[in-house]
Amino acid sequence: MSSQDTDSGSASASDGRTTTAMDAEVPAAEPIIDLADVTFGYTATPVVEDVSLAIDPGEYVAVVGPNGSGKSTLMQLMLGLLEPDAGTARLFGVDADRFDDGEQVGYVAQHASAAKEMPITVREVVKMGRFAHVGFGRLSEADWAIVDDALETVGMTAFADRRVTQLSGGQRQRAFIARALAGEADLLVLDEPTVGVDAESVDAFYDLLADLNAEGITVLLIEHDLGAVVEHADRVVCLNREVYFDGPTDEFVDSDALARAFGAGARSLAGVDG
């Protein structure tokens, strides 16, 4: 028997099948956001205290909590806009406050206030998403194609040459999501994105988020509308300085976290009977 035959025989597992490279365990993807024992306060009193959570690629996570619960502060810690007083915050595998790869993160603020009052067109807003890739230079034909694709994805092609000041609240939010898509972001962060948006536009907005998440974009939503969260998000983080709940949405609805964080009438706010 040749040495080659001997090697081939020893490569067979005891169950009779041949071991291959495919049998090697595939390492789990690193969390996009990873907080460990994070505490932060603007004064001596913590606004966020001892928060630990991880958000994996492809998740659709909503952070909820009453006014003043620390939701927006937590989002800023996640994005490295604030540095924890204690604990660690990591974004795409690096310390969040040192993260500088802006093209990976798309951010949509409440009211999409940036450029809200500026006399620029929707296409010009979406064009800004390419700046993380090309700086402030001229966009190439390929860059403009990405801009046009982003506009089409969010259903705003017909409004491309309309000024942002002429849009409804829902249309403006779509334009800013298109900007994030033009930047080819892996993580889409939205801070109270439906405040002031009419009910019909809210439904269409959440349908769009679901479609983007289905395409692999990780969605992190800071939201006051409990009913929307219960209907659309896959995972809920309920915060009131501390994390009261972190898990699947259906389990959140059945937990006591709603009442503990929001008060006795919270189940009706979430559209849940009983």
Automatic annotation (TrEMBL):
The keyword Electron transport does not apply. It catalyses: an R-cob(III)alamin(out) + ATP + H2O = an R-cob(III)alamin(in) + ADP + phosphate + H(+). SUPFAM superfamilies: P-loop containing nucleoside triphosphate hydrolases. Its EC number is 7.6.2.8. Residues 33-266 form the ABC transporter domain. Residues 1-21 have a biased composition (Low complexity). It holds the Pfam family ABC_tran. GO terms for molecular function: ABC-type vitamin B12 transporter activity; ATP binding; ATP hydrolysis activity. Residues 1-25 are annotated as: Disordered. Keywords: ATP-binding, Nucleotide-binding, Transport. SMART domains: AAA (SM00382). The keyword Cell membrane does not apply. The complex is composed of two ATP-binding proteins (BtuD), two transmembrane proteins (BtuC) and a solute-binding protein (BtuF). Required for corrinoid utilization. Probably part of the ABC transporter complex BtuCDF involved in cobalamin (vitamin B12) import. Probably responsible for energy coupling to the transport system. Belongs to the ABC transporter superfamily. PANTHER family: IRON TRANSPORT SYSTEM ATP-BINDING PROTEIN HI_0361-RELATED, METAL TRANSPORT SYSTEM ATP-BINDING PROTEIN TM_0124-RELATED. This is Cobalamin import ATP-binding protein BtuD. It comes from Halosimplex litoreum.
